Amino acid sequence: LRSAPPLEMAQLYFRVFPQDAEPLWNNPCEDKRHMQIWSATKSCERLPKFLVIGPQKTGTTALYSFLLSHPAIRSTYRNPETFEEVQFFSGTNYYKGLDWYMNFFPGGVNSTTDFLFEKSATYFDNELVPLRAFSLVPHTSIISILIDPVRRAYSWYQHVKAHGDKVAAQYSFLEIVTANRDSPKPLQHLRSRCLRPGEYASHLERWLDHYPSTQLLILDGDLLKSDPVSVMHLVQRFLKIKPFVDYKDLIRFDKKKGFYCQVEATMKAPRCLGRSKGRRYPVMEADVEAVLQRYYQPHNVALHKLLTRLNQPLPLPKWLRADLQ
Ligand code: A3P
Predict the structure, then answer these.
(1) What is the pLDDT of residue 38?
(2) At what angle do helices 149-162 and 185-195 cross, to 10 degrees?
(3) Which of 1, 42, 59, 323 lies 20 to 30 Å (CA to CA) from residue 253?
(4) How many CA atoms does the CB half-sphere of 45 hold within 13 Å?
(5) Where is the active site (predicted)?
(6) CA-proximal residue: ligand 1, atom 1 (nearest)
(7) Is ligand 1 within 6 A of the CB of residue 279?
């Protein structure tokens, strides 16, 4: 048995138990003892009832904006550092602690009638997030959106290029997706960031290691684009949210934008997403599309098995059925 001053003791402790160096936040409201020592000014309500986890470029912003049209749904305040998303569970923000996260949620909500949610599209494929999220909010519902991973990868490439990514600007899309171990490191890294989120089944399995499948809703991003009204009705049923709102009154197809946009009685014109959502770019070249289709084939087979196993309310997406034929 040894004793030491606090700092030294901490260092000794983490040398013996390195696995404890990473914090894992639990929900203070789920434990009476924690509640007793927690400040009376804090509230258990400032946590999400559901999370929209991504992946990026599948229509997550459209879903986010449609959700906000609902009178009982509210989201987090914007994070000025990460272009709106809070991204608590996926990066170093996690080390800022629970108060930091909870302060993003509006206070004064009625937890039985109001639905607070957070959307961070980086959550989907981050290895740490499912465990971290489950430790803090085990009863929260999880919503993910999938589109054809080939198109998702291309949309992501267009997105990072438009944001001035130097590596993306230097290489063609084909060069990026065919990069290998001999390629420059930044190119290999970009390829991985581009392709990995589309390996849907492996990421979903990680979420299912923690959350029961009944808490997981997987949406078809193509349907969200072509028939968002029916998707929003499905989401409301899944969340058991009241009042049930008819989205025919809240969103309408806008010919100019080429997508559905929000409408409200008080608005002069529909409110569409900005230019960075629904970008116009050249059609993907056939050679690179073929490379990507080959790459994603085994992942899509695994996804097909997974979706068949889960009892999801939506039928298999058309692109998945077509890909496996
Ligand atoms: P593109 O810009 O490549 O067309 P995210 O918000 O997850 O980044 O996804 C962006 C994608 O959402 C867009 O990709 C677009 O195709 C799709 N999307 C779906 N519904 C939309 C809508 N109502 N308005 C704009 N984009 C929408």
Answers:
(1) 83
(2) 130
(3) 323
(4) 16
(5) 57
(6) 278
(7) yes
Q: Which pLDDT score is estimated for 107?
A: 83
Q: Is the CB of 62 under 6 A from ligand 1?
A: yes
SS3 for 250?
coil
Whole-number pLDDT of residue 83: 67
Catalytic residue among 49, 57, 119, 242: 57
- Closest C-alpha among 64, 24, 70, 26 to residue 44: 26
CA distance 214 to 311: 8
Write out the two tokens for 37.
């020592």
Tokens 């997550």 found at = 60
> Which residues on adjacent β-strands are paired with residue 220?
146
Strand partners, 253: 260
In a 10 Å sphere around its CB, with 0-12 CB exposed, 13-18 middle and 19+ buried, how is residue 87 labelled? Answer: buried
H or E stretch including 117? strand 115-119
User: In the chain, which stretches have pLDDT less than 70?
Assistant: 82-83
Rounded-to-10 torsion of CA 43, 73, 52, 264: -150
The DSSP symbol for 116 reads: E
Are 71 and 113 in contact by the 8 Å Cβ rule? The answer is no
Binding residues for 3'-phosphoadenylyl sulfate: 155, 260, 277-281
Q: What is the ipTM of this complex?
A: 0.99
**Residue owning the nearest CA to atom 24 of ligand 1:** 259
Q: pLDDT for 282-313, tens place per residue?
A: 999 999 999 999 999 999 999 999 999 998 98
Asked whether 161 lines ligand 1 (CB < 6 A), one says no
Residues in the chain: 325
Residue type, 144: S
Give, in order, the Cα–Cα distances in Å from 141 to each of 85, 237, 312.
18, 12, 14
Is 166 an annotated catalytic residue? no
Q: Please indicate whether residue 215, judged by its CB atom, sits closer than 6 Å to ligand 1.
A: no
Can you give the pLDDT at residue 252?
96
* Beta strand pairing call for 115-119 and 50-54: parallel
